[in-house]
Amino acid sequence: MGRLVGLLKGQGFRKGVAGSSRPWMAVWVLITATRLARKLTSRKAVVERFTLKPGESLIITDLGVPESEAPPVSP
User: What is the pLDDT of residue 75?
Assistant: First the structure.
């Protein structure tokens, strides 16, 4: 599916943006806007970096709420 969308996006750019076909430009705009919206609304990974001194330790626990029970994330 990704290859097909990539091909349609390329055709849309060549024939719509670089050319003058409004239907192909609409295809390109739709695919580009969908990908941008998905990228902006995707969940970001939580990454922490710690420097441990000799003798220190790190305990990792997961006390989070399961995704199925979590409230919606507000931007």
Answer: 61
- CA nearest to 32, candidates 64, 4, 63, 8: 8
Q: What is the DSSP string of 7-56?
A: HHHHHHIIIIITT--HHHHHHHHHHHHHHHHHHHHSPPPP-----PPTT-
CA gap 29, 14 in Å, rounded: 12
**Residue 24 in contact with residue 16, Cβ under 8 Å?**
yes
Expressed in angstroms, the distance from the first to the final Cα of the chain is: 29
Tokens representing residue 61 in the block: 């626990």
Residue 6 pLDDT > 80, yes or no? yes
Give this prediction's pTM: 0.57
